[in-house]
Structures are given as C-alpha cells and as structure tokens.
Amino acid sequence: MKKGLIALGLLACTAASAQDVSAYTPASDEGIVYFLPKTVLQVNLIATKVTYQPGDLCQYANRYLRLSNVTSQPETHWELKTIDVRSVGIPDSTKAYIIKLKDKSVASNVELTENGIIKAINTTSPQEPVFAEYVLEKPQVHENARKYMTEEILMAGSTAKMAELTAREIYNIRESKNLILRGQADNMPKDGASLKLIIDNLDKQEKAMTEMFSGYKNREDKVFTAWVIPENNLKDRIVLRFSNLLGVLPAEDLAGEPIYLSVNSTNALPTLLPEEEKKKKKIEGAIYNIPGKGNVTVSYKGKEYFKQELPITQFGNTEVLVDGLFNKKINTKVIFSPQTGAIVKIDKD
User: Fold this and answer.
1) Is the whole-model pTM more than 0.85?
2) Residue 197: pLDDT above 80?
3) Which long-range contacts (CB under 8 A, 24 or more apart) does 321-325 make?
C-alpha cells in the first residue's frame, strides 16, 4: 500500500463494475486498504518549573535595599498551570477496509495519512494543523551584573564593602531615571525614542544589580502527556499525579496528588439491530464514521481544570457513502477528518 495519493479503479457506471468495498482480511484481493480512526484522548498537563537562584550579596539584601524574606538557599518547585485534552484519531484495527481494483472502472484517487487512515477521495485534503501550538513560558536570560559594576565596586576588599557600593550604585541609577523623567537631567534625550532607549538601559542595569541581592527566579513551562482510550461512564480515572515538590508523576506514584479524568457520552447513536447491520454490510460504497460526542472532565484537588464536549468515534456509528455518487457523469470529491473519520466536505463537478 502506497502512502499519499494512490491511483485506483474505484467506481464504474454499471452495477457489474460498481465500487467494491469490504472488510479487510489478510490474503484478500488486491486493492487499497484503509482504516477508519478511533479516538484516544491526549491529556496534556502544562506545569511550570520555578527555580530560585540566590544572589551573591543576598545576606545584605535587607540591610541596604530593605528586601525581606530573601533566602540564601537555592530552591525548585512546580506550579500546575493548565490541563488540556485533545481528541486524537489513531487507526482502528477493527475498522480496516479494502477498496478492490477492477478492470472496468473510473480512475480515481484516494489519499491516506501516513498510518493508513482515509483522508480524501478524488481530491487532496488541506494541509492544515489540527491543533494550535501551546504558548510556553521560556527561561529568561539574566544579565551579568558585574559588567555594570564600577572599578571601585570590583576592587572592594570585602563582600560587605562590595554590597555597600553596589547598593549605592543602584540608588544612583534610580536617581538618574527620576531626573530624566522629570526633565531635570543635565543632558536630556532629544526625542522619545532616545528617552525610551536610555530608560530601558537604566532599567536593565538596575535589575541586574538588584538581583545580586534578591536573587532571581527562572520559570519554564513543560508539557506532560497521558493517553486514555475513552469509555462511556468513565469515572475518576487517575491519569497522572502532581506534586509541588516533584512535579508531574505517573499515575501509580503515590508521592503526588491524583489528577482525575471522567468521560460521559452525550449523544451516543443507537446501535443497529443484527438484521440492520447485516443489510448495511451489503451496501457498496466508502465506509465512514459518524462520531458521537462525550463530556470530558479533568480535575485536581476538587478543581475542574478542563471541561468540554469532544468528538469520540466510539460513541457513534459507521455509515456508507454509496457508490451512486461516483460515476462518469458526476465527479464527487470527498474530504474526511483523519481525527474522527467523519465527512468534512463533499463537492460535485
């Protein structure tokens, strides 16, 4: 089976050479094998790793800058930022079908995903991203305060003296900013752009030198993923655990608090009776999904972080796109969702 667009004899204008689609079995006739997708839930937990690094002059923070609660010990902890759930389609091994090749047929095209899920017939599906990218917080770049220090500060004979001179330089920077903003500086900037550039540089210097006392924090977002096959009336399945000290943990690690997932079908389609199912299998045509929907909820410590209705193919049924839509008089183009197997668009020429 080739990936992408595959030329095949799909349909003919007479009943004798109609489209022949059947459940796939190994060693069956030659043809194009395709899968319909089933839904798995991709549970994405975004957690922020917060790392504190003390400054070299942290023991003098309160004395010179009146900064209280400044610790001299490095520290790392985690914060739970958000939880997102996405409905993702994977090949369903129980829904494999073959479109058999015939001699007297109209040349058509079938487009498949890399893992064999049907995407389109007689056309090309749009190459659009299925999900938006997460906006993640990245660690900041921290300035080296020593490049702003004067010779007198760098040549100080003790840490205490360096702290005193550094604090004095911080106050000088603040005074310079105030004079500029009040229009009282000896050499005022000539325009707004110059003013902004000077103030930004002074802010950068002040921040870098203040961090010598206060230390600084790095915040970095990380994405952790769990995969769950949805079931109706699924109640409080533990998918991951979370600890402020250790971060995201596997479901079986009792060092963290559990994160619960619940799923309930909202519009499950009626199941066909055996005789209806048997009759349906005799209809020739492309088989596709009519997905159902389910309410998906994720909670942590009693708080709901995610609650949304998502498409779930297992809560729906399959249907047949009859081959009468495809003949020499009508060129039918069909686009399927590779996530659900549902019809997205039908066009006729």
Assistant:
1) no
2) yes
3) 321/285, 321/286, 321/287, 321/288, 322/283, 322/284, 322/285, 323/11, 323/18, 323/19, 323/284, 323/285, 323/286, 324/285, 325/285
